[in-house]
Amino acid sequence: MINHFARNESTMVQVSLFRPYGEETARWLVDFNNELDELASRHPLINASITGFGVNYLSLQMYTLSHFPYVVAFTGLIISLILFISYRSLVVALRSAITNLFCITIVYGTVTLIYSEVGVAWMVPIITFSILIGLNMDYDVFLVTGILSARSSGLSNRAAIVAGLENNGTVIGVAGLIMAAAFSGLLFSHTVANQQLGLVILIGITFDTVFLQTMLVPSLMAQLGELNWWPSRFPDAGVDSLDDAGAPEESDSARMFAGPRSDDAEAGGAVGG
User: Fold this and answer.
1) Distances (CA, A) of 161 to 119, 174, 252
2) Helix (H) or strand (E) holding 3
């Protein structure tokens, strides 16, 4: 369809060849825009451009995706900083970042494999990234806080991991089940993008609660031992089981990071004498 405007001094050619928001359309628009740039360089008097919903949508997509790596980097940096300040442990912050990256890679890789024929909608990672990070960090904080509390009561590192998992594992599982149920309704949507969004959340929560927080993270922390809390340090563990631990004298973890108090050492020397 060709329309003439302003005494035939300008002309608009409207062409509809593809789906306006399809991948094929995006490639065509990019290639055609490059050709227009070459035409403008050869003929400076010709001012040609592309407009329409497809072009605007593609511009929004390219702009958003080009800035998405900055969002990922900023989110990871802020979360790692918060964990370091909260637990005074660089290892906890780095381990959490690595396990979260591993979980997100598994989730997006699985969804990409399932929708290999139609492709994953470009907005799905944009929307779900922050959701997955937030959920994973919630469960991770539940687990690490439980382990820290058990370690501060005098348990050894391995016994503290068992205690933290025993005390908070149910909370993590129930919270994950509720979130999975809340997003599962998207799987029955007639829109593929909504299905993919629901599937990403469902796989992420399931993988995180069933494998990551109950198997992988406790295993890594058991292998790292006291290095988990570096550069902070704990006093030597006095007990190796929950039955012998008793109640902790203080709930404030700052005392445990500071090491044994001098009055405790003097009292122990007096009893020994």
Assistant:
1) 41, 19, 18
2) strand 2-5
Residues in the chain: 273
Q: Residue 62 and residue 117: Cα distance in Å, rounded?
A: 22
CA–CA separation, 118 and 112 (whole Å) = 9
The answer, yes or no, to whether the previous bond of 260 is cis (omega within 30 of 0) is no
Sign of the alpha-carbon torsion through 249, 255, 260, 264: negative
For residue 98, which amino acid is it? I
| Listed residue (213, 1, 5) closest to 102, CA to CA | 213
- Number of Cβ atoms within 10 Å of the Cβ of 70: 9
What pLDDT score was predicted for residue 170? Answer: 86
Closest C-alpha to 163, from 208, 218, 225, 212: 218
- What are the beta bridge partners of residue 89? 231
Predicted model pTM: 0.70
Which regions in the chain score pLDDT beneath 70?
1-29, 32, 49, 51-54, 235-273
From CA 156, how far away is CA 245, in angstroms rounded?
10
Residue ranges of alpha helices (H) inside the chain are: 23-42, 53-87, 90-114, 123-152, 157-184, 192-207, 217-224, 253-258, 262-272
What's the CA gap between 140 and 61, in Å, rounded? 32
Strand-pair partners of 13: 2
State phi, psi for 5 to the nearest 5 degrees. Answer: -130, 155
Strand partners, 239: 155
Relative to beta strand 2-5, strand 10-13 is: antiparallel
